[in-house]
Structures are given as C-alpha cells and as structure tokens.
Amino acid sequence: MSAEDLDGFEAESQMALYREYQNVSELFTYVVETDRRFYLANEVQVTPHTEKGSLYFEVDLTDVWVWDVFRPTRFVKKVHIYSVKDVNVEEKAQRTDLTVPDFSGPLERD
Hints:
Blueprint: H1 3-24, E1 30-33, E2 38-51, E3 54-67, E4 75-83, E5 88-91
Antiparallel strand pairs: 1-2, 1-5, 2-3, 3-4
InterPro entries: DUF2469 (IPR019592)
Organism: Rothia aerolata
Protein name: DUF2469 domain-containing protein
C-alpha cells in the first residue's frame, strides 16, 4: 500500500466517523472532551482530586459514544477516565418539537 493510498484510507475513515457523529449526536446530552478523546454521553460526573499538591480529574460517563476511528465499537455503556489535564463538559441544547411561526409577512392587527 502506498503512502497516498494510506492517506486516502485515513481521510475516508475520518469522514465516515464524522458522518456517524452527525447521525448519533442527537441521542446524547453531553459533549465531553479530554486531552486524549472526544465523547458524547448521557450522564457525566466529574470529580476533582488533589493529592500531594497535584490536581487530577476522575470522570464517569454513562451511555457513551467515543470518537475513535480505530475502535470497532464506539458505543459503550460506561467509561471511567483519569486525567491530569483539562476536562471540558458541555451540555448540548435540548431539541424541541416546537416550531417557530414565520413572521416574515406583514403583521395584522384587530
């Protein structure tokens, strides 16, 4: 396999992973980013620990999708993470079934 073939395979794999992310992202409430991975999860608990002047984070995730092109299965029931670097947790905006009326026309008054 040539270097060009390998680059093409890697780019194709990353695009497939991105498409999968787009398809599954609405199923999850939280986006979690560590120095090593990117996760989607429905439950997140972050516990900071200080030990001998050092800070680290213990992160528990439930109902998880893992952004990793090399994993054969990206859906995981539980993930337990230790990180000495920053952990970013974002709660996604909840999707609603409400539609906003179109107010682009003239307003009518009674």
